[in-house]
Amino acid sequence: MIGLAPKGLQRWFPILQWGRQYRGPQFADDVLAAVIVMVMLIPQSLAYAMLAGLPPEMGLYASVLPLIAYTVFGTSRALSVGPVAVISLLTAAAISRLGLTDPAQMISAAMLLALMSGVFLLLMGILRLGFVANFLSHPVIAGFITASGILIALGQVPALLGIQGGGHTLIELLHSLGLSLLETLNAPNWPTKAVGLITLLYLFWSRSALAPLLRKAGMSERGSTMMARLSPILAVLGSGFAAWYLDLGAKGLALVGTVPAGLPGLTVPDVSLTMLQALAVPAAMIGILGFVESVSVAQGLAAKKRERIHPDQELVALGSANIASSFAGGFPVAGGFSRSVVNFDAGAATPAAGFYAAVLIALATFLLMPMLAWLPRATLAATIIVAVWSLVDFSILKKAWNYSRADFLAVLSTIVMTLAMGVEAGVGAGVLVSILVHLYKSSRPHVAIVGEVPGTEHFRNVQRHQVVTHPHILSLRVDESLYFANTRFLEDLVYKEVSERPALKHIILMCSAVNEIDLSALESLEAINSRLGDLGIKLHLSEVKGPVMDALRRSHFLHDITGKVYMSQHQAVTDILLAE
Amino acid sequence: MIGLAPKGLQRWFPILQWGRQYRGPQFADDVLAAVIVMVMLIPQSLAYAMLAGLPPEMGLYASVLPLIAYTVFGTSRALSVGPVAVISLLTAAAISRLGLTDPAQMISAAMLLALMSGVFLLLMGILRLGFVANFLSHPVIAGFITASGILIALGQVPALLGIQGGGHTLIELLHSLGLSLLETLNAPNWPTKAVGLITLLYLFWSRSALAPLLRKAGMSERGSTMMARLSPILAVLGSGFAAWYLDLGAKGLALVGTVPAGLPGLTVPDVSLTMLQALAVPAAMIGILGFVESVSVAQGLAAKKRERIHPDQELVALGSANIASSFAGGFPVAGGFSRSVVNFDAGAATPAAGFYAAVLIALATFLLMPMLAWLPRATLAATIIVAVWSLVDFSILKKAWNYSRADFLAVLSTIVMTLAMGVEAGVGAGVLVSILVHLYKSSRPHVAIVGEVPGTEHFRNVQRHQVVTHPHILSLRVDESLYFANTRFLEDLVYKEVSERPALKHIILMCSAVNEIDLSALESLEAINSRLGDLGIKLHLSEVKGPVMDALRRSHFLHDITGKVYMSQHQAVTDILLAE
User: Fold this and answer.
1) Which chain A residues contact residue B444 at CB under 8 A?
2) How deeply is B17 buried, as exposed, middle or buried, from its count of CB atoms within 10 A (0-12, 13-18, 19+)?
3) Are residues A314 and A385 in the same domain?
4) Does the pLDDT of residue B175 top 80, yes or no?
5) Segment A317-370, tens digit of pLDDT
6) A417 in a domain, yes or no?
7) Residues in B touching A400 (Cβ below 8 Å)
8) Burial level of B21, CB count in 10 A (0-12/13-18/19+)?
9) Which of A312, B28, B78, B413 lies in disulfide reach of B433, CB 3.0 to 4.6 Å?
10) For A512, which of B435, B496, B512 is closest by C-beta distance?
11) What residue of A is the nearest CA neighbor of B137?
């Protein structure tokens, strides 16, 4: 079990920890998982490279060294790193914005993007800045992934049907698809449409109906699920064979075409200041989104076995994986959901499973590359559409609407902005709206005027309970930390109550829910204290928490306060009444 | 007394409320205050127009209609609206960035800026968006005003000494002043240096020493303070007389020069799409900063008399004042600190005092304009320097350092960025850093593992108190609302504790300090609940607040939770122990 974060070298190289106890049974488990993951990864990697607007073989390049880097640096036993859908879409958007036309330059830009997001993640890991990822709230991520899934699926329709078209927003995509569909009436490309639609139907069918069928035929629960997950490789092999046997390439079917066998040597992408500037924001966004997806997946899978991952070290591991991808001629990678679940279910015992998968994929590239020439692009498009279709889930909108309008607003902005303005604007809008909504809510906290429940020492809201109050004592309970966003609210509230109560002599702020008082709030309290003092009204505090009291002791407030600080609200009221 | 926010027409036109009870004694008080404020406002308005890079007479234009608009719409009895230092500096920065050289175009741009910030404030008021101003925390404002004061004072040195130079950042200013001072050795402009430095010394002296001197001579406390505050008018009259009598204009002293007598007719500034775009951000910033300054001043003065102001209506009033300033040929205005304090101390009884001051200033423009021709610009520069000098106060740095490093970081960023990059970057950096710091702090909340203090029903931190715990029950108290910024922290924490406690069967989250659970946190709780469930560990909640419980009831969580929700932590532990 990977427990507490270790110190020293083992913190930075978790392999030194688990590697020491590595034994034969774990080896067998890992190799089995590696074989299964490899079979699933090959079509997925090719497809996501195409989704990123890059040559399919780059998907394989991005699946070897990154897995090895993650084996050395990663803390999750199940996470499988490589090309993933949303990151590939972001890569496509970032590269297309550069306006490059030369394929060699686009490849170089993708490698540079991987390098930059890798360095960004590595720095965040070394500086322990993983909390930045918290800015992406769950609803925003859910909305973003749904909207991205729609954009990705629509973006693959041209390759699926052998028509023109493309775009980065819903309107661009629908507009160009509409025009292309009209054109295709005159020149229908039947071979592409046949391969694309048959593959699509097969994949949707195998995803939903294959496992039950195999179970009916007597296969085990686990075996049938696994087979259904690996069925895309059949689509790749079948459609490749059909393209070769029927020579569909000559009849209008777009094929991947000849690519160099094996893996390229290690390279360094071209770096220029213009490119660095143009790719800085996308690189940071890719890094953070990849990190968030990876950590969510890894944390979920680790918890199932009472294990833990270390988010800060995951930044280092993902950063290294991206840097490795760049040097290997690949593009940005992350820990994917579906591939990691397959790895987990296949029984991966340690991160070494990733290493074996990498070796197997490297071997496969030597054997497969010649056959890739016959792989139809329509098959890859169908693979992508089926993979992302499960990501599209509008139920988050309904859930958010029912739970809180604030969360609904954040989800809706994310979805609308992603569809209307593209992925980067969508993430940006989501983050901004959720922060603004949070600040808005905490700037108008729930406040209760409280009184004592007769016969007890409890103080409750005067509007909800029959309680005892005194005309010259006002007890206020603020259910929020006091900080800059709500200091004006607090001042306004106190002055309002004072202006309505001519007999008032004491105000007690009950601080049981105040987790922080920042300098703005301290200055507000000082101003309130001094103005109330001028009016002959004393300000008291009660039930101040330890850490808040520690902070107040570092200021002059406890000397200046006209009243006292009491342990409990009951004690405060009793003491004031006694003193009269 | 202005009490609760009134409804209907009176909400939008507070004059209908206080005007109904307007009587003779109030009239006498208001007129006296108006006379005093008028005498103080004339030199200040001229000087701040020059600070904004505009003809001095625009300061008078900006002091008539805005005061009348505020009389109709304002809720503060003391606030005095007109040109203020920081807003004038922001105006200068915004206009200079347009790269205009034609003075007529600059005047038109300043009028447009006033119109835009007025419309912006009016919209915020109608939509009740006053909370946006909360984003400017006290320490950020204090840092910004200090840094602005330095920039303003340095920016006036050229006019004070009759040399060249200027700039919008500390480095630009120091660099150009250094060069100009070297040049001035060859061609010293003695008349300007004499007028500038003598006026400066007189103003500093009168500010600190005049009031005590007058008190010694037998004048009342209030009278001597008032005289000292009005002494700048003597500097204006004296230096103007000297310039005329000695014909210093011919000897190198820069004078204001001939301006048209009286007030201009109502005009509408030129509007173009380019200008609207270029001025949008500065207009919003000027609006918000002006609003924050005005509300702070108005709230402080109102509280002294147990009165209240209505911040949302203040947005309407300030918006109207800026729109009025634009139509009257003025520039952006706000409620100033020093002028409002003078108005308050002079005994202004209602907002009508502002109306009378406006009438007096309008009369004065007819009488004074011919004399303005002889007013030395060096005198105005000295007036500005003395006025802003009191704003420069670095003690906020020390205070913030002692109280909390987070607040210190926000102040320091604001000061450094304002000095290094200019006013807009400074405010932006301050707002950004304070929000980030707040999110960072609440993303790593204080958490305590708690146990029962023997013989009581209280639960306290196991690290601070001798308490009773049970190996199969873990009680966690999180001292923060649960929301997107800390959900990952919570998950990580729970999984860490679970991975370290093999005997664990129950986790109780004590929610007494949880003021909110947003959708992200709800989903985290659902994930935690389900993963703990898989491990045979039950999740319970205790001491959930009313509003939080209301939200949870709108979700499925209360059906899905493996454990129970208890009224108190004591009840939770007792119940779990009994059930065994």
Assistant:
1) 131
2) middle
3) yes
4) yes
5) 999 999 999 999 999 999 988 788 888 887 787 888 888 999 998 888 888 777
6) no
7) 519
8) exposed
9) B413
10) B512
11) A484
CA distance A163 to A183: 8
Whether the CB-CB separation of A58 and A331 falls below 8 Å is answered with yes
Residue B438 domain-assigned?
A: no
pLDDT higher than 60, residue B8:
yes
Predicted TM-score (pTM) of this structure: 0.77
Average pLDDT over residues A117-142: 86
Question: Among B376, B393, B410, which residue terminates a domain?
Answer: B393
**Which residue do the tokens 């490795």 mark?**
A324
Residue range A12-30: mean pLDDT, rounded: 77
- The whole-angstrom separation of Cα B565 and Cα B549 is 10
Q: Write out chain A residues lying below 8 Å of B545, CB-based.
A: 479, 513
When divided into structural domains, chain A yields a total of 2
Task: Write out the DSSP string of B454-516.
Answer: TTSS-EEETTTS--B-BTTEEEEEE-S-B-GGGHHHHHHHHHHHHHH-TT--EEEEE-TT---
Q: According to the per-residue pLDDT averaged within each range, which of A215-224, A369-378, A454-463, B525-534 is highest?
A: B525-534
Residue A125: Cβ within 10 Å count:
24
Secondary structure (3-state) at A542: strand
Q: Is B520 a residue whose pLDDT tops 80? A: yes
CA distances from B129 to A119, A485, B170 (A): 41, 13, 34
Higher pLDDT, B200 or B10: B200
Does residue B296 sit in the same domain as residue B208? yes
Torsion of CA B170, B175, B177, B179, to 10 degrees: 180
Residue B433 in contact with residue A534, Cβ under 8 Å? no
Sort residue A234 into left (φ over 0), alpha (ψ -120 to 50) or beta.
Answer: alpha
Q: pLDDT per residue over A420-453, tens digit each?
A: 988 888 888 988 898 888 888 888 888 889 998 8
Question: Domain boundary at A395, A424, A458, which?
Answer: A395
Per DSSP (E only), the strands in A20-103 are 81-82
Q: Which residue from B138, B527, B554 is facing A402, i.e. has the nearest CB? A: B554
CA distance linking residue A443 with residue A436, whole number of Å? 10
Give the residue from chain A lying closest to B402, CA to CA.
A554
The string of DSSP codes covering B414-466 is HHHHHHHH-HHHHHHHHHHHHHHHHHHHHHS--EEEEEEPTTSS-EEETTTS-
Among A280-294, B162-176, B261-275, the least confident range: B261-275
> What's the domain range around B550?
447-578
> For the domain that residue B520 is a member of, what is the CATH number?
3.30.750.24
A191/A318 same-domain check: yes
Tell me whether residue B256 is in a domain: yes
Q: Say yes or no: B61 and B188 in one domain.
A: yes
The whole-number average pLDDT for the span A83-112 is 91
Q: Is residue B167 part of a domain?
A: no
- Inspect the interface and report whether the beta carbons of B299 and A496 lie closer than 8 Å: no
State whether B235 and B93 are in the same domain: yes
Contacts A–B by Cβ distance under 8 A: 214
Question: Is A127 in the same domain as A239?
Answer: yes
Query: In whole numbers, what is the pLDDT of chain B averaged over residues?
Result: 87
Side-chain half-sphere CA neighbours of B296 within 13 A: 22
Say how far apart CA B99 and CA B311 lie, in whole Å. Answer: 36
Q: Kindly state whether residues B103 and B197 are assigned to the same domain.
A: yes
Q: Taking the mean position of all CA atoms in its chain, how far away is CA B124?
A: 16
Q: B400 and A479 in contact by Cβ < 8 A?
A: no
Same-domain status, A380 and A523: no
End-to-end Cα, chain A, rounded Å: 64
More confident of the two residues B174 and B387: B174
Distance CA B572, CA B565 (A): 8
